[in-house]
Amino acid sequence: MRCALCGGELIEKVITEDVIEGNNHILVKVNAEVCEQCHERYYASGAVDKLIEIKEDLKKYHLKLHEVGKVYELSV
Fold first, then answer.
1. Residue 22 belongs to a domain
2. What pLDDT shows up at residue 62?
3. Number of independent structural domains in the chain
4. pLDDT tens for residues 3-18?
5. Smallest Cα–Cα separation from 47: which of 74, 70, 5, 19?
6. What is the average pLDDT score of the chain?
7. Mean pLDDT of 47-64
8. Does residue 72 lie in a domain region?
């Protein structure tokens, strides 16, 4: 399969998507085909729906998640 944007070759990868709700970020591993040239991502069927569901659940239910690090803000 070829990229619809640039015609580059697509390779199957596990990528990390950042789902953001307020100040919370969830890193979600997702299967996708990624263009080797322009890095456009093509998701498997249902993957985007799952990402949207995760964001909605985070907003509604304040999910308890495993903390893997911290994000800090610094003004200079």
1. yes
2. 66
3. 1
4. 999 999 999 999 999 8
5. 19
6. 86
7. 83
8. no
Per-residue H/E/C for the chain: CECCCCCCEEEEEEEEEEEEECCEEEEEEEEEEEECCCCCEEECCCHHHHHHHHHHHHHHHCCCCCCCCCCCCCCC
Rounded mean pLDDT, 31-54 = 93
**Residue 55, domain extent:** 10-61
- The answer to whether position 36 is within a domain reads yes
Which structure tokens are listed for 63? 């999910």
Q: How many CB atoms lie within 10 A of CB 35?
A: 20
Phi, psi of 53 (to 5 degrees): -60, -40
C-alpha–C-alpha distance, residues 10 and 33, integer Å: 6
Distance CA 21, CA 58 (A): 7
- Determine the pLDDT at residue 40: 97
